[in-house]
What we know:
Layout: E1 8-13, H1 23-36, E2 42-48, H2 51-62, E3 70-76, E4 82-88, H3 90-100, H4 104-119, H5 134-151
Parallel strand pairs: 1-2, 2-4
Antiparallel strand pairs: 3-4
Helix pairs in contact: 1-4, 3-4, 4-5
Amino acid sequence: MATRVKAARVSVQADGVRSPVAAARMQAAALAVLKAERAGAALVSITLLSSRGIAALNRRHLGHRGPTDVISFGFRDPLGAVIGDVYICPTVASENAKRFGRPVREELLRLVVHGTLHVLGYEHPEGETRTASAMWKRQERLLARLTSATRS
């Protein structure tokens, strides 16, 4: 008989990859998203990968070439629990932060929020309309809450 997980749980693995955001901070951010979205029972893993590692994952699972910033996989088990994996490349996040004029820590937290929302089933269009999507707007509202909480 399957038992239902009663709470949201998030684990963070670095696989030898360094990040300016502590694993505990990433875990707290993902848990805050799960709570805000009323996910209930959830098991989410966040793994930091090198550019090479995420490029291999990108090619193998999505058929795309080269490294990307975040890749997520998620589903609900038969009892309704959310189960998902979020893979983040801090190197690409750092490059994106520079390109968009954002702090790298903020960009990494944005990817945690973004990946967690994908695990929960959110989607967005590709291209320039991406930032106008409901998912992107939700992501930015959640990120604003997370970053203002750390400044207080």
